[in-house]
Amino acid sequence: MGITPPALTPAQKSLFLTLGGRAFDSRLPRPFLGDTMADEVLRKTGYDVAKFPTLSSRLVDPRTKVFDIAVRAKRLDEAVRQFVTRHPDAVVLDLGAGLDSRMFRVDPPHTVDWYDIDFPEVIAVRQQVLPQPANAHGIGADLTDPHWLDDVPDDRPSVIVADGLIAFLTQEGFVSLLNRLTSHFPSGEVAFNSYTTYAVWTVKHIPGFAAIAGGVANPGFNDPREPERWAPALTLAEEIFLTRAPELTDMPLSVRLASRLFAPSPALSRMLGATVLRYCF
Ligand SMILES: C[S@@+](CC[C@H](N)C(=O)[O-])C[C@H]1O[C@@H](n2cnc3c(N)ncnc32)[C@H](O)[C@@H]1O
């Protein structure tokens, strides 16, 4: 259909890597996430994900190509689902939502208000390719702009997720965003996949990520307690290592063996597999 705007920045283009990962996952005989809407959305955009060799390579096993993207999305969905089950009056923020159909996977109660925030160009595409339920709101803004939160209710508990976003924020932008979020809401949770310094180096230097490398602005961090120092309202609640994911039982033997080797060590797990961090405030 080809509705993709022609001039996306590398940070904006990165949404097709995660969307493509979830779409390819849904085509597997036994998907990890099973989000068929991701595949529909990808087809509607007409975007050629062959621009991401990490997805299109025939040398890598299809399950290995999508594991990190699909399983970290699943962990973040679970964090949101558990929160809205406890707080049916919650506000959900999906920061750097891209074209993700998380709201349809989580299927929150109608009493929840759900906000997808991304650059205006991306939100405009979202509105063409995804359904817009009455309690879904798109905010087209740069997340580092201090004013986009002005229209979001500030008197309800909030669960805030960011899938694939942090690498594209400067350190200053990330820290001020965390502090603005924790001061805006009375209480809540923040969950995101983290990027270690090694992961940032990888995205910048491995040719498979060339299409998005120019957008990477964050130095990464290795200690999950760092955000508690940057935003003192946050308390680390959980560090989830994908090297310990139950879904690994369905992966090729080589990946299972490598994960079994790395899983006992938090340092190796952080460095070599995806990690989801969950904080309370
Ligand atoms: C890797 S993509 C992930 C998209 C989506 N969360 C997903 O999982 O498919 C990163 C997203 O963050 C968005 N993004 C990066 N920096 C941003 C900023 N400063 N303000 C708003 N959105 C931003 C990009 O436009 C892109 O959609």
From TrEMBL:
The protein, known as: O-methyltransferase involved in polyketide biosynthesis
Key words of the record: Methyltransferase, Transferase
InterPro entries assigned: Ppm1/Ppm2/Tcmp (IPR007213), SAM-dependent_MTases_sf (IPR029063), TcmP-like (IPR016874)
GO biological process: methylation
Keyword Methyltransferase belongs to the record: yes
UniProt GO molecular function: methyltransferase activity
